[in-house]
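Why should sequence recovery work at all? Because a backbone constrains its sequence more than one might expect. Tight turns favour small or flexible residues, buried strands favour hydrophobic ones, and helices have their own preferences. The token representation captures these environments compactly. In the example below, the structure is given first.
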């Protein structure tokens, strides 16, 4: 069996390669005597020991003797009719080293290399053939194949990917019976699909078998120049279909009335000019599938758009439920789409009657159909507000979980990397042993990096700590970036190294900015980065450049618009085999879901609550407005074109939104009664900059908004707006010691009121100290910013 895959049915039709001339490196051996073939098999690899060559010849003769018992005039016909050739049994059923003293698989391998037998993909995967690729390359005597092997060896790939690139090509040539000159992109796709089917049949139920192989081979053939110039650079790009035409989108649904089909195509073609691809897909789904296909199911003879009230009422009942029987929440959207369709035809018919007038009909949607739409939308906003209300207090738990998991994985990886093979060490009270397996030693001999592995001596569990640390880092980076920036999930995936900008103030202070590319609203915006957000972005950049390389240029596939971007240094990318790929929105969603599921095992509050990337955006908006930021500034940071959209995001604190917004308008009218949008004067700009300078205090900086005075009479330790500088931790310790001394004096003197005030100050001080220590645990990130060159003395030039 196979599993569903979105990589089946792409724009390029997979088909096997066709041999212009059948490859016969040793001539036509289809009917050659068994003794002659065995002698050729023994001499294929001259560097092998004499005993190995002899055993290979004997194994080949054993296989041919087995095939002689089946019907056929050629060895291939006998192979196809045999149990081994049909994949019913493994080759070891003929004879194994334990039973006969001679392994039979070297004979099978030799027959493949000599081109005597052409196996199916299932049979090739069923039998493990050691050293097949090296023997096959030598046996073919193909200079183009040797050039491919040399080209793969020169590519900057790990040895395991170089090995797979050569083995996969030899597999393709043996199964499809062609030479390298006959290989086409379509034949590589056919090879990948057939491998997928064979692996799923041999390992049913294993979703890993559903993956397509051959990516390294595709990359090598493309960089070698073997494919045509217009061939996609990666196999994934060739498998993804891209945008469909309007006709293809409509024809996905069976429309009986050809005239109505033509009308729908014309209508969608006109709407395509002012809509993006994802909107057109949603329009096709609502108008073609839900509306007209449903109408034809109820009345197959419907000839035009004139829908009777009874037919409309019957159709209206069909869209109340989904195909799986669940209530449909998007009924209003379908009805609005249908009504817009009819009204658009009315309007267009006045402009182009020769084209649209014949289809004008009364709109079947009655005037009172959408009665209560505003109420239903308010119910949706209430459910959204309740969702935010449930998740806001749980966010600190999720943040602490991903931080703790990443800190533990990072520190364990650093300790394990310092340990020798077999060394036992203790980390956070647990005993581990560094493990380097025999396959790891083989990879190390080729210069390939291997994932760091340790064994928990208490449980005996083997931990791939290198892989775990990589996963923990991206879990932490995704959660932190989403909650500190408030960007949409698509915008997060589109962040690149070029998104980072800086603004230098007149006093020399540099402010980091994050440029968010246009997405949903097609509107670029700039976000001033907080210290926490800058730390996350800097950590991602450092991870990509830690081996002295630049961030790889990768093309990102947009799942909504079905297009590929230009190669860009995307921040959220990782290595997938031999190819770097950008994180998809679904991958980040799965990462967050796994963290919530892990927390639900120890925290009951997470058992019925799941976080989505958009939940972080709503919480970010709520905290912004609740902390005093004017709502129109919050709308600009979130990229909302309508301030009412932002109000919907912070509906959980609706009274605070109204109060802050009205206070801001009142203050603005008093300060700037005329010339609301005039240019700022130098005095106003200096006052704006001086505000941030006046926020600097002994322990750090004050986070109060612009234009507001200190409301806590400079009681900074108690003030929630104080942001403590980690460098001032020793000063906090001094203040705590002084407060404790004052408390002792107050106890001895009996100053009860003084004791209460000191205890309150101690509580706030310790909270700020713990929070600052937690933030200070993150290792500093060195971006490698170059220093200005100093001029050399003339004698040193």
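From this structural description, the recovered sequence reads:
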């Amino acid at each position: 069996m196979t599993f569903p895959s979105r990589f089946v049915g792409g724009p390029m039709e997979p088909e096997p390669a066709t041999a212009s001339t059948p490859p016969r490196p040793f001539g036509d051996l289809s009917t050659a005597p068994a003794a002659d073939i065995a002698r050729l098999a023994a001499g294929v690899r001259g560097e092998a020991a004499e005993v190995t060559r002899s055993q290979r010849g004997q194994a080949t003769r054993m296989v041919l003797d087995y095939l002689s018992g089946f019907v056929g005039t050629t060895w291939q016909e006998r192979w196809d009719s045999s149990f081994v050739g049909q994949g019913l049994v493994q080759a070891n059923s003929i004879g194994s080293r334990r039973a006969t003293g001679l392994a039979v698989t070297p004979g099978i391998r030799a027959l493949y290399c000599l081109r005597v037998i052409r196996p199916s993909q299932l049979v090739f995967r069923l039998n493990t053939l050691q050293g097949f690729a090296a023997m096959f390359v030598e046996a073919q005597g193909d200079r183009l194949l040797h050039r491919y092997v040399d080209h793969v060896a020169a590519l900057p790939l790990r040895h395991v990917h170089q090995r797979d690139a050569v083995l996969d090509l030899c597999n393709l040539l043996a199964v499809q019976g062609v030479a390298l000159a006959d290989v086409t992109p379509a034949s590589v796709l056919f090879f990948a699909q057939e491998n997928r089917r064979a692996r799923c049949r041999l390992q049913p139920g294993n979703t890993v078998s559903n993956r397509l192989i051959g990516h390294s081979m595709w990359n090598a053939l493309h960089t070698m120049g073997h494919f045509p110039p217009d061939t996609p650079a990666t196999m994934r790009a060739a498998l993804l279909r891209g945008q469909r035409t309007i006709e293809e989108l409509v024809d996905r649904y069976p429309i009986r009335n050809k005239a109505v089909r033509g009308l729908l195509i014309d209508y969608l073609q006109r709407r395509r000019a002012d809509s993006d691809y994802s909107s057109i897909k949603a329009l096709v789904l609502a108008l073609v599938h839900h509306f007209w296909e449903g109408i034809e199911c109820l009345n197959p003879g419907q000839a035009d758009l004139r829908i009777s009230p009874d037919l409309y009422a019957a159709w209206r009942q069909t869209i109340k439920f989904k195909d799986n029987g669940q209530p449909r929440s998007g009924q209003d959207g379908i009805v609005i789409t249908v009504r817009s369709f009819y009204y658009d035809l009315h309007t267009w018919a006045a402009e182009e009657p020769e084209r649209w007038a014949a289809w004008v009909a009364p709109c079947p949607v009655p005037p009172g159909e959408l009665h209560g739409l505003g109420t239903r939308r308010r119910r949706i906003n209430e459910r959204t507000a309740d969702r935010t209300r449930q998740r806001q207090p749980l966010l600190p738990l999720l943040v602490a979980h991903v931080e703790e998991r990443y800190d533990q994985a990072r520190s364990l990886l650093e300790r394990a990397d310092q340990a020798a093979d077999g060394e036992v060490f203790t980390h956070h009270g647990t005993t581990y042993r560094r493990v380097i397996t025999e396959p790891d030693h083989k990879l190390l001999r080729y210069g390939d990096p291997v994932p760091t592995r340790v064994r928990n001596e208490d449980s005996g569990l083997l931990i791939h700590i290198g892989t775990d640390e990589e996963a923990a880092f991206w879990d932490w980076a995704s959660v932190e970036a989403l909650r500190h920036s408030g960007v949409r999930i698509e915008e997060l995936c589109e962040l690149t190294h070029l998104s980072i900008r800086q603004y230098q103030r007149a006093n020399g202070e540099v402010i980091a900015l994050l440029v968010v590319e246009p997405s949903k609203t097609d509107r670029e915006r700039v976000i001033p980065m907080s210290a926490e957000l800058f730390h996350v972005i800097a950590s991602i950049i450092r991870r990509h450049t830690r081996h002295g390389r630049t961030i790889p240029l990768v093309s990102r596939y947009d799942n909504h618009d079905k297009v590929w971007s230009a190669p860009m240094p995307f921040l959220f990318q990782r290595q997938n085999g031999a190819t770097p790929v950008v994180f998809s929105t679904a991958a980040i969603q799965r990462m967050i879901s796994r963290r919530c599921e892990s927390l639900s095992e120890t925290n009951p509050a997470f058992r019925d609550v799941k976080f989505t990337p958009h939940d972080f955006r709503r919480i970010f908006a709520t905290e912004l407005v609740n902390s005093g930021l004017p709502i129109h500034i919050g709308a600009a940071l979130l990229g909302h074109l309508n301030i009412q959209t932002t109000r919907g995001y912070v509906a959980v604190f609706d009274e605070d939104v109204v109060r802050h917004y009205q206070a801001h308008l009142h203050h603005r009218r008093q300060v700037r009664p005329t010339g609301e949008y005039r240019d700022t004067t130098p005095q106003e700009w200096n006052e704006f900059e001086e505000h941030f300078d006046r926020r600097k205090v002994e322990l750090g900086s004050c986070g109060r908004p612009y234009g507001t005075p200190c409301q806590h009479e400079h009681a900074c330790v108690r003030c929630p707006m104080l942001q403590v500088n980690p460098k001032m931790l020793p000063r906090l310790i001094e203040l705590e010691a002084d407060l404790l001394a004052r408390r002792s004096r107050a106890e001895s003197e009996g100053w009860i009121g003084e004791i209460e005030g000191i205890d309150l100050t101690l509580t706030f001080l310790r909270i700020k100290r713990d929070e600052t220590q937690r933030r200070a645990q993150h290792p500093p990130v060195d971006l490698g910013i170059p220093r200005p060159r100093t001029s050399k003395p003339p004698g040193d030039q």
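A few observations help interpret the result. The radius of gyration is 35 Å.
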